[in-house]
Amino acid sequence: MSGNEEQVLKVAMPKGRIYKQASNLFREAGIPIPIEYEDTRKLMIELPDAKMEFIMAKPVDVPTYVEYGVTDIGIVGKDVLMEENKDVYELLDLGIAKCRMSVIALPDWKPSIHPRVATKYPNVASAYFREQGQQVEVIKLNGSIELAPMIGLADRIVDMVETGQTLRENGLVEQTEIFSITSRLIANRVSYRMKNERIQSLCDRLQEALAARV
Ligand SMILES: Nc1ncnc2c1ncn2[C@@H]1O[C@H](COP(=O)(O)OP(=O)(O)OP(=O)(O)O)[C@@H](O)[C@H]1O
Ligand SMILES: O=P(O)(O)OC[C@H]1O[C@H](OP(=O)(O)OP(=O)(O)O)[C@H](O)[C@@H]1O
User: Fold this and answer.
1) Is residue 4's pLDDT more than 50?
2) 37 lies in which domain range?
3) Domain containing 153 — which CATH number?
């Protein structure tokens, strides 16, 4: 890394579906991060002129990098923030990668004596059903969650809905929306104090870029 170490702002960017929207927003804010990174396996991007360094992280790991301070800030979905419950500051709602967390079932769902709920988000699901006063067994899956009620692993699932296409194509219905999701800018607590001016100025630029969109 070149330049003054103190001044470099380290950012954890999520690989996958958030990257494109987040990188568009950064470019609109005047930060020339590449549009695509998929054609390389490079996991770090340095922007010496902007004194910024980006790491390409698995989305679910972004709060961990930020909590440990190996990056100063990061971008992450509200779903991951709720599930991971890390000790970080949530600075800005970026309004990108919109979707919602919902309870989903087959159309003929009926309450059962030993209800089972499959999800990628066991903490979110457990907290939700606890608040509802419903005792359920939560089963953790890592993907293709919609399969669970279809093949009898669970009665219901807690999962994200964006367009609703996955539900429609698999004959499932949304029972309840638990919360809406967008991506957030988060910061390490120490970095927020030590690099406050840099982080604040980035927030201002991102907010201006967001305001210019509407
Ligand atoms: N349709 C959607 N389904 C899932 N997440 C979505 C959707 N639309 C927006 N998002 C947001 O994108 C984030 C990252 O999703 P993405 O699929 O890239 O990562 P992931 O779930 O970790 O995938 P993988 O495990 O395949 O790497 C989610 O945490 C959520 O905030
Ligand atoms: O409402 P839709 O627009 O259909 O989007 C929702 C789907 O997208 C996500 O799955 P993802 O693509 O991340 O795949 P996976 O979790 O099954 O790996 C989510 O878990 C839903 O299955």
Assistant:
1) no
2) 5-97+182-213
3) 3.40.190.10
